[in-house]
Each structure stands twice: as structure tokens, then as C-alpha cells.
Write a structure and sequence with these properties.
By secondary structure, the protein is of the alpha/beta class. Helices cover about 30% and strands about 20% of the residues. The two termini are about 30 Å apart. The structure holds N-carbamoyl-L-aspartate (NCD) and zinc ion (ZN).
Length: about 450
């Protein structure tokens, strides 16, 4: 308490358009939860709006959003910290309005057991500006581990059905995959899937060899890979009843398959990434290795179908798949250049930019409601993060002041990821994250370019 009776660390955000999603918001093209007003945070939690506070953030002309949740980042600890680390990754996150991340297990060594998650958590403690949770990796040799994963240790188990440079732990054997789905169902753990069919790629590679130009890469990792894998996932969900979240859809067919399976009552959902919504083969010709990704960037018709999945609310989560590599690694000869790009910082603004370009006549309140649904509320619900994803009394005081009409040029100077480059360099962004607050602390202020303290903690 300060002498005037106001708790230190308290903050009030006033005068903005506050976005709370509500029951139908976003999905049916409504914005019931958007209202003018403010949010007050005290002792790290959202409290009734009649309280006073020490710090006042003026949000006039801006939206006030719940802190965004990126359920798909590769922050590269342990073992790959030359590509990315938590100080850089979490600064990129808050600069993009993200206050909670879920980290992936393809580290060195890979995070394949509860013990490995605990060891990683110890390394991360005290280095992150954002709160965090972990996905454990499914170990093809020990599928039975998934039958009793503590949800406080891992929010899901990740399965790589195809591999590459930074994804060496691949489940190739259909028998092992079946055991993983059975064990996850028994342990009630959600699977998140990198669904590409390794056998399809192995067959093509034996016939055609490796690509020698980046512009040919998509033909070497074609749509048959993910489509075949998603069909397998749907059959396994049917057999075992496992909750399955398919990551980074790249094709129209996958969106149709997962949506049809869900309509048939199966517990299957999907994620879309900022980059599959932002780039097509036209861009990859220009950007080369920067947009070399697994799964590959595809054609305009695919991108149109993915955006349709956003408009119809078929998608559950938007994720960045923030997967940085150094410039030196990306500049290697084509077969050796690893797939992946940084994206946690660009995710929300790139999606907002896409929404305003695609649907210029849509009410901004409706568009922002969609964004908040898929970047906060649904990821929190899907992965069981209590106190996250909603602006409501008692929730964590995580929030973002987002200027919807602030157009600005995104350049290499803006990049906070350790790798220092972005595929979005040269983009005119249609919105800006002005302020990010994590549990009552201002962790990003765009006007001064300053960050808060690395006191993010593990959400369990
Ligand atoms: C990811 C990486 O580099 O960790 N790369 C990517 O292209 N998405 C791993 C992965 O998800 O395949
Ligand atoms: Zn992946």
C-alpha cells in the first residue's frame, strides 16, 4: 500500500473498447462482448472497475484485449539457444501482445518426459517476460508414458508425424502411432499433431531427390503429405476417442476433413498459423528460405479456405509456430536450410492486417472479437489455462492496448527475436500493440520501446 491507500502495481486502463468475447461472439459474426470502458488490475488480478489505481493507461481510440495466448512457440531451450532464447522470445511475445506462450518439445535433448519438462522449467525460470506452459513430446519408444501425464506438467503431448532438421523425434511406425493415440486417450491428454505423412515424403524423395531451388520446395513437400496424415488422424480419433488438435493446416482439404470430422462428433480441432494466412507461393518465390516452412506455404485457393475457416469460426486456435533459425542456417544450400520462421511478435498484427484487407466492410468490433476468440479465449479453454484468455473479474491482469488504425512499416529494426530477421519485413501493418500488461505489470510500452521484468511464471 502507498500512503494514499492505492496498492503499488495497480493499474487502470480507461477509455478503450473492451473486448470480452461472450457466448457467440466472433463465431457468428457478432460482437456482443465489446463495450466502452476500462479494466482495473490490483495485485495481479482483474477487479471491479470502481477501484482507484496508481497508474492510468489511456486507451482512447484503442481496443483493450485480454493478454493474447500463443499455444505454439519453439523458444529453443535447451540446446538450440543460438537460434532463440527466452529473454528474446518473450520480448518478441510481449511486443506482439502475447502474455502467455506454450513451448514445444523439439529441443536438444528433446522434452519427451515429465522429468524433461521439469528440467526445462528450471532453465526458463527467471528469464521470461511472459507466463508459460509446456507441451511434452510423445516418445515413439515409450507411448505408455502418456497414460499418466500430469496436466500440471504438460498441457498436451506433441506428435511429429514427419520430421526434418529440427524435428528428429518422428513417429513413423503406424503401430506406434496407434499406441500413442490409445495411451493419450487413457490418460485424457490432448495430442497436438504436426500432421504430415513421412512415408509420402520418403517415397517422393527416393524418386525425385532433394529440391535445388527454394521455389521448388512446395512440390517436394506437396499437399498429399498433410492430407494423408490428417486422414490418418481422423481414423485414429474415431478408433480411440483421443482429443486431437491438428497444428498448422496448410490446405483446403485438411480444413474440410477436420471440420467434417468435428461435425460428425469427433473431438478434433485445428490451428492456423499467421504465416499460412499471410503468405502464398507468390511470396515464397520472392522470400526463398525465409518462407521455407513445414508444412509448406501453398496457393491462394488454400489460403482463401483457411481464411474462410476463420470467418466461420471453424478454427480453434491461431498460433505463430515461432520457430527461428539463424540467417547463416537459412542461407545454407537448399536441402540443408531448415524450415521455420519467427512469428510470435507478428502474429496478432499480421492477422489483424489480413482481416482488414480481406473484409474491409466488416465491423472492427466483430473482427476484433474473432481475433480474441482464437488468440485468447479458445487456446485457454483448449489447454485448460485457468485465469487466462478472458477479461473478467478474478482473472489474471493480462491485457493489451491495441490501436486498430495505426498503420506502420514493419522493418528488421523492429524484430525482437534473437535471429534478427522476419519474413514480414516491409509489410505495412494495419494495427499496433501499444501496451502489454502481464499480471498488472507493464511489460511492453511501444511509445518508449521499453520492457518489463522477466518475472513470467509457469501456469500450472
Ligand atoms: C519447426 C522448427 O523449426 O522447430 N519448423 C517449422 O517449419 N514449423 C518445427 C516444426 O513444427 O516442424
Ligand atoms: Zn510443426
Amino acid at each position: 500500500m502507498t500512503p494514499d491507500g492505492v496498492r503499488s502495481g495497480d493499474v487502470v486502463v480507461s477509455g478503450g473498447r473492451v473486448v470480452a468475447v461472450g457466448e457467440t461472439g466472433g463465431r457468428r459474426g457478432t460482437a456482443d462482448g465489446v463495450r466502452s470502458g476500462g479494466v482495473v488490475v490490483s495485485d495481479g488480478k482483474i477487479v471491479p472497475a470502481d477501484r482507484e489505481a496508481r497508474r492510468v493507461i489511456d486507451a482512447r481510440g484503442a481496443y483493450v484485449l485480454p493478454g493474447l495466448i500463443d499455444s505454439h512457440v519453439h523458444f529453443r531451450t535447451p540446446g538450440l539457444t543460438h537460434k532463440e532464447d527466452w529473454p528474446h522470445g518473450s520480448r518478441a511475445a510481449v511486443a506482439g501482445g502475447v502474455t502467455t506462450v506454450m513451448d514445444m518439445p523439439n529441443t536438444v535433448p528433446p522434452t519427451l518426459s515429465p522429468e524433461a519438462v521439469l528440467a526445462k522449467a528450471e532453465l526458463v525460470a527467471g528469464t521470461s517476460l511472459v507466463d508459460y506452459a509446456f507441451h511434452v513430446g510423445a516418445d515413439p519408444d515409450r507411448p505408455e508414458l502418456l497414460a499418466d501425464i500430469d496436466p500440471g506438467v504438460a498441457v498436451s503431448a506433441k506428435v511429429f508425424m514427419a520430421g526434418h532438421h529440427t524435428a528428429p523425434t518422428v513417429v513413423r511406425d503406424p503401430g506406434q502411432l496407434d499406441k500413442i493415440f490409445a495411451a493419450a486417450a487413457a490418460g485424457r491428454v490432448r495430442l497436438v499433431l504436426h500432421a504430415e505423412d513421412d512415408a509420402v515424403y520418403a517415397l517422393l524423395d527416393r524418386w525425385r531427390g532433394a529440391p535445388v531451388r527454394h521455389r521448388d520446395y512446395e512440390r517436394y513437400r506437396p499437399r498429399t503429405g498433410p492430407i494423408s496424415a490428417v486422414a490418418q488422424v481422423v481414423r485414429l480419433v474415431e478408433r480411440h476417442g483421443t482429443a486431437a488438435h491438428v497444428l498448422h493446416l496448410s490446405t483446403a482439404e485438411e480444413a474440410d476433413l477436420v471440420t467434417a470430422a468435428r461435425a460428425a462428433g469427433l473431438p478434433v480441432t485445428f490451428e492456423l498459423t499467421g504465416h499460412h494466412l499471410s503468405f502464398t507461393d507468390v511470396d515464397t518465390r520472392r522470400l526463398g528460405a525465409k518462407t521455407r516452412l513445414a508444412p509448406a506455404i501453398r496457393q491462394r485457393a488454400d489460403q482463401d479456405r483457411l481464411w474462410e475457416a476463420v470467418r466461420l469460426g471453424e478454427v480453434s486456435s491461431l498460433g505463430s509456430d515461432h520457430a527461428p533459425h539463424t540467417t547463416e542456417e537459412k542461407c545454407r544450400p537448399v536441402p540443408d536450410a531448415p524450415p521455420g520462421l519467427p512469428g510470435v511478435q507478428e502474429l496478432a498484427t499480421a492477422v489483424w492486417t489480413g482481416m482488414r484487407e480481406r473484409w474491409p466492410d466488416e465491423s472492427p468490433d466483430v473482427a476484433m472479437t474473432r481475433l480474441v476468440r482464437h488468440l485468447a479465449e479458445e487456446p485457454a479453454a483448449l489447454f485448460g489455462l485457468r485465469g487466462k484468455g478472458r477479461l473478467e473479474i478474478g482473472a489474471d491482469g493480462d491485457l493489451v492496448v491495441f490501436e486498430p488504425d495505426h498503420r506502420w512499416l514493419f522493418s528488421a529494426r523492429d524484430v525482437r527475436a534473437k535471429c534478427g530477421w522476419s519474413a514480414y519485413e516491409g509489410w505495412t501493418m494495419a494495427g499496433r500493440v501499444r501496451t502489454t500488461v502481464r499480471r498488472g505489470e507493464i511489460v511492453w510500452d511501444a511509445d518508449t520501446g521499453t520492457f518489463g521484468s522477466p518475472t513470467g511464471h509457469w501456469v500450472r
